[in-house]
């Protein structure tokens, strides 16, 4: 694109709520044929609420809420705020040795016991517990479960409600009509949850249970056949945002790791800004041809 066209494209993007760090990001976006998207915070609103708690052990519901919130206090993950809110107003126990594993969960020592919150595999990683079957699905797209483990035993499942963004389906349609041949969901969440959200927004390719490195591998796989964008909001998305031909961060809450790794940052808390900026990118590059 000519410098004038590029300046115009960048300022149009800004008016649509998208920061373009460098004109090359717009050029890359115009050529993209595959768009990989994260689930939590990207296709969903990313402000989950705890809607119920299922107990599997001897630990009471009040203790589950308090222990989970205690280890989540310092986490920036969208689930963490939900856990802290769900614990009510009583002071939380102070955790030690807190350690967060991106895409899996957080664990720490609380009142002498190791408490873990996250995926099922993460909370019972040492095989110390056979654990319960999955709680019955609600059928509400975006509903998900965070497991709570104490000393390697699964003691509870906390259901989180994180609704699909109402404009997500239309965004996928707009991309598909504008030359994006393939949209792919890549998430750290379970296959059931991922498939429910993918169905709700009209995505047919799903990769669930991805670690941050797993997301990079999926993006690389797509890139080997077609120019590929990655769209995500979390710390767990930073490596795949950096690896893609163009990385696009949902940055409304300013998750700095993802914003720093990305070429474009959506500051509007709306996923349709993605279709807007894709349209602007194609317009900008076309002007110059
Ligand atoms: P996504 O790819 O959908 O944005 P993440 O990669 O952030 O999801 O997380 C994947 C899964 O790991 C979540 O669905 C959740 O089960 C678990 N998880 C990650 N971090 C946390 C945390 N701080 N607290 C609870 N669960 C977590
Ligand atoms: Mg996310």
From TrEMBL:
It is found in: Cell membrane. Belongs to the cation transport ATPase (P-type) (TC 3.A.3) family. Type IB subfamily. This is Lead, cadmium, zinc and mercury transporting ATPase. The chain holds residues 270 to 558 of 632 of the full protein.
């Amino acid at each position: 694109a000519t410098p004038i066209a590029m300046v115009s494209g960048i300022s149009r993007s800004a008016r649509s709520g998208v920061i373009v760090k460098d004109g090359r990001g717009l050029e890359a976006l115009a050529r993209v044929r595959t768009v990989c998207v994260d689930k939590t915070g990207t296709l969903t609103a990313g402000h989950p609420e705890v809607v119920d708690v299922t107990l599997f052990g001897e630990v009471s519901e009040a203790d589950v809420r308090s222990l989970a919130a205690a280890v989540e206090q310092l986490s920036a993950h969208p689930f963490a705020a939900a856990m802290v809110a769900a614990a009510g107003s009583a002071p939380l126990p102070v955790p030690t040795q807190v350690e967060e594993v991106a895409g899996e969960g957080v664990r720490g020592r609380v009142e002498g016991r190791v408490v873990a919150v996250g995926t099922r595999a993460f909370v019972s990683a040492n095989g110390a517990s056979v654990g319960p079957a999955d709680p019955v699905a609600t059928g509400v797209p975006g509903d998900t479960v965070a497991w709570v483990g104490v000393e390697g035993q699964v003691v509870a499942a906390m259901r989180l409600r994180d609704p699909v963004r109402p404009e997500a389906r239309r965004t996928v349609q707009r991309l598909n009509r504008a030359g994006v041949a393939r949209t792919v969901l890549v998430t750290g969440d379970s296959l059931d949850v991922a498939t429910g959200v993918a169905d709700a927004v009209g995505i047919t390719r799903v990769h669930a249970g991805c670690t941050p490195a797993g997301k990079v591998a999926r993006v690389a796989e797509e890139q080997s056949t077609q120019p590929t964008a990655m769209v995500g909001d979390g710390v767990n998305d930073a490596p795949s945002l950096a690896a893609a031909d163009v990385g696009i961060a949902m940055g409304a809450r300013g998750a700095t790791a993802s914003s720093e790794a990305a070429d474009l940052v959506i500051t509007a808390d709306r996923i349709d800004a993605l279709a807007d900026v894709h349209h602007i990118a194609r317009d900008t590059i076309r002007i110059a041809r």
